[in-house]
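Consortium newsletter contribution from the modelling node. Members have asked for a concrete example of what our holo predictions look like. Here is one, prepared for the fe (ii) ion complex that several groups have been discussing at recent meetings.
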Amino acid sequence: MHRLALTEKELGEIRLLVREVAARHSSVEGADFLDNVSTYAHEMPRRLRVFLNTFRLTEPSGVCLISGYPVDDARVGKTPRHWRKKPDGSYTMEVDVFLNLCGALLGDAIAWSHQRDGLICQDLVPIEGHANKMIGSGSELELVWHTEDASYSYRGDYIGLMCLRNPDAVPTTFALIDEVRLDLDRVEVLFEPRFVFRPDPSHPTDSEGEKASVLFGDPRFPYVRFDPYCMDRPETDEARSAMDYLTRAIDENLTGVALLPGECLFIDNYKAVHGRSSFKARFDGTDRWLKRINLARDLRKSRAVRKAPASRVIL
Ligand SMILES: [Fe+2]
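And here is the predicted structure:
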């Protein structure tokens, strides 16, 4: 994994920047913040900018971890019971700003109009009625690994997660496609655009999904788009067997990291699949709480389905 531990000096610079930006804006959802966040990010410590730029440009790994940002558990307040319930106080605003500043060094944050009210910076918290659902707000069911928003060609290039609390050390799981040994014959089949992707349960839409390849890019170091739970079983034996082969190979390479408060994990949505282990939620304000953003390297690709050049919401 590509890792960076922030130094005290860097944290001093970050704290000043985060406070200044947090004081200028009422939330990270507004255009006033989103139009300026990539400019503010120019003021992050250079080592952090180099680290994220290297992750973006040379693809040294499918995931990277930034640690050291201090999170004060008392000031975080209670874990909300629902992602719609906004935590009060300015402290979580600072955390949102930090995650978004890091994210802006990789791309522009995007949201989906039909998912979580079009929010950019989302609270990943267990919801009482969702315990047995296989979605981000579930808990007792393992969230099986997947490419984020696999059925959409406008899916993000990166997912950013920041941990506010994780008392039971619940792992965020992932597998890196570069670490999966692939048989060349299967790779060839998986490169063919014959796999049908359907929207996952977090996208209540009437979209029919898309037909595409599972692997793409350089066959030696392929990119991956894969979510077996939300794909049709292919019609031919050859395609079915290639899909099952890749599923097993990813299963064997699945690993994970239990994020600590303050840690930011960026997942390259082309180079890694990700999920979450199951856990027993308490629903008493002390549960696991992560922040999530989705980032696109090139906003223009989705211009046809956004209202304005700088709008972040995909309709
Ligand atoms: Fe996900």
